[in-house]
Fold this protein.
Amino acid sequence: MSSFQSAQQIAQTREVSAAALINGQCDLRGYPFRHLGVVADSSLPMPRTTGILIAAEILGQWGWELVSVTKPFESVDKLVAFLRLRS
């Protein structure tokens, strides 16, 4: 299980874990930026693609829209989604 992530912690890297979103262990209130990365790795108890899409659906309820999804070439076990806050 992931640890709680505050808006300030998320703002430092501009990334939040998909597991934290799915498990309700983050708070984006006060997040100061319009763009956000959601990282899914092998710690999820489901396929990474499923975790990324669930996280995007959760964020969609708060005005975020999915821009793209990529697999970083430096990591074989991560998937990253990029989201933008609708204006």
